[in-house]
Amino acid sequence: MQIKRLEDFIKNMPEDVRGIIPKARYLYLELGKRSFYDPEYKYFMYGEAEENLAYIHKPYSNPNIIICTTLAKQYKQLLDLAKIPNSIMSDGGEHCFNNFIDEDGLEHETDLTQDLKNIQFGCSTNYFSIDTLEPEELRKIDVNLGYINDKIGYSNEHWHIIRDAIQTDKLSPKQRLELIFANLHRIGDPQKPRHYRII
Questions:
Q1: Which of 178, 144, 170 is nearest to 17 (CA)?
Q2: Element holding 7 (H helix, E strand)
């Protein structure tokens, strides 16, 4: 799918995606697949007024190198284009995220910046309607959208297999490393820039 402007996300949305939550989820996943947190901002330019302005007014581009304020604004624009009531929220500090309201008037909190790495690795997300949607309901939506399927599921559901396999005493350190590299494609593309949180 060719995406050059935010309007292209709406144009490319499948016709069978109906209802506010599935539409908001589709836009969340598609924007997340194409957006990358700029580590230079966090580590080199954080708090510099001129750089903040450059990011706040930065339009969508592909690849979409962003910070939270940019991404929250872009997601809001997509929700506006889809005619979904929404707003940008702040945690009281520098971080921005989004809320949207479904047909029943229920408000759903989302934080796409925090979910970028999850989406790009095909994992379950941690910040999309976490307090308002049951995991099984979200899984059903993700299957319908083609993000996952009934047979494979989210990639983080399979990581334990690789973890357990490399812990066996039967493998040498070299074999363990080879096993990790042979299965790296199952847990994401290591060549894409991402925002990693060091814990």
A1: 144
A2: helix 6-11
Dihedrals phi, psi of 15, to nearest 5 degrees: -65, -25
Long-range contacts of 163-167 (CB under 8 A, 24+ apart): none
If the chain, 199 residues long, is cut into consecutive pieces of 10 residues, what is the mean pLDDT of each piece?
Answer: 88 95 98 86 54 63 85 96 96 88 97 94 93 95 93 77 72 78 60 39
Note the Cα 190 to chain centre separation in Å: 16
Question: Which amino acid is residue 198, in one-letter code?
Answer: I
Cβ–Cβ under 8 Å, residues 30 and 17: no
The model carries a pTM of 0.79
Neighbour-count burial for 64-88, b at 16+ CB within 10 Å, e otherwise: bbbbbbbbbbbbbbbbeebebebee
Provide the pairing of β-strand 35-37 with 64-66: parallel
